[in-house]
């Protein structure tokens, strides 16, 4: 169900684009809220992350999907652009029809990096 994956990634994009969204869109321990029921946090499960309330499962490569983890991924891709001027944008990118990725684009060299 790539629609929920997309909504989750959009949510993550918002959090990293506008710091004030951070507090309202995530639970206190940094887990993101379920994009379907909007009340429970997404906890790690076998295939990705899972909502214990509405039973939604979103397949992601990372099971421990938290603000800290995404921040760590961002720091890693940014370090590859240490010679670029600082700045960039986290966004949701759809490729090959319905493949949804969380990406970061360097505002200096315009290179697209896939985070998730
Ligand atoms: Zn839910
Ligand atoms: Zn760059």
TrEMBL record:
InterPro entries: RPA_interact_C_dom
Limits of the RPA-interacting protein C-terminal domain: 33-113
Protein name per its UniProtKB record: RPA-interacting protein C-terminal domain-containing protein
Protein source organism: Lichtheimia corymbifera JMRC:FSU:9682
